[in-house]
Design a protein that fits this description.
Order of helices and strands: EEEEHH
Protein name: BED-type domain-containing protein
Oligomer: single chain
Number of helices: 2
Helix content: 25-40%
Largest sheet: 4 strands, antiparallel
GO molecular function, one term: zinc ion binding
Bound molecules: zinc ion
Radius of gyration: 13 Å
Strand order of the largest sheet: 1-2-3-4
Keywords: Metal-binding, Zinc, Zinc-finger
Length: 69
């Protein structure tokens, strides 16, 4: 596994972070990436929290990622 540039991955303790990887780049901008479809979210936690991530999981992961039914 190779890290790109100066990005670093920070483990988070939250249920949504079981499905997403949080990445902070060298500019300090945070983004998250879905562990399953690798969709990236530019997510300012101060503004949006993890709501969009939970939405992605609840509405999308179940159908697209798990694929049951
Ligand atoms: Zn996804």
């Amino acid at each position: 596994m190779a890290l790109l540039g100066k990005e670093k991955i920070i483990p988070q303790r939250s249920e949504v972070w079981a499905h997403f990887t949080k990445i902070i780049n060298s500019e300090g901008a945070s983004k998250t990436k879905c562990n399953y479809c690798e969709k990236e979210f530019y997510c300012d936690m101060k503004k949006y929290g993890t709501g969009s991530l939970k939405y992605h999981i609840s509405s999308y992961l179940i159908k697209k990622h798990v694929g049951k039914g």
